[in-house]
Design brief:
The chain has 480 residues and is α/β, with parallel strands linked by helices. It has two domains: 352 residues, Alpha-Beta Barrel (TIM Barrel), CATH 3.20.20; 89 residues, no CATH class. Helices cover 43% and strands 8% of the residues. Strand 3, helix 4 and strand 4 form a beta-alpha-beta unit. Helix 12 crosses helix 13, helix 13 packs parallel to helix 14 and helix 15 runs antiparallel to helix 16.
Length: 480
């Protein structure tokens, strides 16, 4: 039997990682074990990732957020990549995917694993293209060699584009935006050039054996996901999803954990349908959604267009959300874009958890609302998702310390502040005073639904200070 989290769970064993997950999720370790054993949750935890602070991804747990980083041909130094990693973790990423395509990939990847308290994901197909020189020159031996190497380096989960098959390609002919997944387009190009079936599909069992040896989690890539609203829920997308369901079950037969990636552009009325269909087809395996963007008209604001869909997907049962930055489709995100993207997605994840009535999730909201009503500005800032941003906005117009005690802000002023008027009316009239107080210390919420954002028990001390990240940039979050 494989020495993996799912194998241990099926054998009735509660691992150290399950104990830690239960602590972070504020639940019974036995419940974690049951969810992992049934394939309804995954704990991405490569045995070679010593700095990892174990976490869980599953619909019965708090919704998680992934951030994509990685180098390019022009930005390849390790220090910059570590700054990107710290920026992502500091602003609340639960996992980080390294989508690097530049130089020194092995050294950078090993450094990420050495320092990261969150799971590290990769797309080995990118390195295969880089080594081969073009998609058409990739061989199955090269794919297996790179996958095994990355597993040995400590990568916790990998996107494997094994679900796109040769018979699916004609189904994309009527689309507006074709194949927008980078990995999907590479595999389609390979199959078109060679006239053969997807090599990742052909050697899938060998990949499972490698993953079982190192306890790497599958993130099955949705190579035919829609890149525009017009292409959402089409025959190509759902044909691949059926294959992903088959691949999920095959991985489970090898005692390998699986999550399944989901669509990028979906109109609002189709978001829940996508989640429900994936859960049915893939037997409840965790759904990892990329967005989804609910409109195509807002370049420069796609962290908003996608966070709307992400919140809806989280409420419907998606387990993890892949963030989108304001630079999506436009250019290389920088630190502030990453900050904005992660804020949007932490909001989406939290809103989804509140909407699905996750235990204790709303306690954070209630505590901040009480601080706001009491004009406890310092407590508002402390409880804010991004305390620095909240404080900076307040201080732009009322910077002096005495305004931290004021019963108004610059939006309404003292005379027209509704909360001040309400308080005064309660003090001198028949309406009851409001004296509720939420105790976050005793909240049933999971860690990610409690302040502060971006805290981990281990590994974070080895990361560079966030102040050193001012000049860094972060690789495009787009299609993997």
């Amino acid at each position: 039997m494989a020495n993996t989290q799912i194998a241990a769970a099926r054998n009735g064993t509660v691992t150290e990682e399950m104990e830690r997950v239960a602590e972070r999720e504020n639940c019974d370790p036995e419940f974690v074990r049951e969810q992992v054993a049934e394939g309804q949750a995954v704990i991405p935890a490569n045995r070679n990732h010593d700095a990892l602070d174990a976490m869980v991804i599953g619909r019965e747990f708090a919704t998680k957020v992934n951030a994509n980083i990685g180098n390019s041909e022009t930005t390849s130094d390790i220090e910059t990549e570590l700054e990107k990693l710290h920026t992502a973790v500091h602003y609340g990423a639960d996992t980080v995917m390294d989508l690097g395509t530049g130089a020194n990939l092995d050294e950078i990847r090993e450094t990420h694993v050495e320092h990261s308290p969150v799971p590290i994901g990769t797309v080995p197909l990118y390195e295969a293209v880089k080594q081969a020189g073009s998609p058409e020159e990739i061989t199955t031996d090269l794919l297996l060699e790179i996958i095994e190497k990355q597993a040995e380096q400590g990568v916790d989960y990998m996107t494997i584009h094994a679900g796109i098959l040769a018979e699916h390609l004609p189904l994309t002919d009527g689309r507006k935006t074709g194949i927008v997944s980078r990995g999907g387009s590479i595999m389609a190009s390979w199959m078109e050039a060679r006239g053969e079936q997807n090599p990742l599909f052909q050697v899938y069992d060998e990949i499972c054996e490698i993953f079982a040896e190192h306890d790497v989690t599958f993130s099955l890539g949705d190579s035919l996901r829609p890149g525009s609203l017009a292409d959402a829920c089409d025959e190509a997308q759902y044909a691949e999803l059926d294959t992903l369901g088959e691949l999920t079950r095959r991985a489970w037969e090898h005692d390998v954990q699986v999550m399944v990636e989901g669509p990028g552009h979906v109109p609002m009325h189709k978001v829940a349908e996508n989640v429900e269909r994936q859960q049915e087809v893939c037997d409840g395996a965790p759904f990892y959604v990329l967005g989804p963007l609910v409109t195509d008209i807002a370049p420069g604001y796609d962290h908003i267009t996608s966070a709307i869909g992400a919140a809806m997907a989280a409420q419907a049962g998606a387990a993890m959300l892949c963030y989108v930055t304001p630079k999506e489709h436009l250019g290389l995100p920088e630190e502030e874009d990453v900050r904005d993207g992660l804020a949007a997605y932490r909001i989406a994840a939290h809103a989804g958890d509140v909407g699905s009535e996750r235990p204790g999730a709303r306690d954070w909201d209630d505590a901040l609302s009480e601080a706001r009503y009491d004009f406890d500005w310092r407590e508002q800032f402390r409880l804010a998702l991004d305390p620095d941003r909240a404080r900076d906005y307040h201080d732009q117009t009322l910077p002096e310390d005495n305004y931290k005690e004021a019963r108004f802000c610059s939006m309404c002023g003292a005379e027209f502040c509704s909360m001040r008027i309400d308080q005064d009316a309660r003090d001198g009239g028949e309406m009851e005073r409001l004296d509720t107080e939420t105790d976050l210390e005793s909240s049933a919420a999971a860690d990610v639904n409690l302040p502060p954002t971006g805290t981990h028990r281990s590994g974070s001390d080895a990361l560079p200070e966030v102040d050193a990240c001012e000049e860094s940039s972060v690789e495009h979050a787009g299609d993997d």
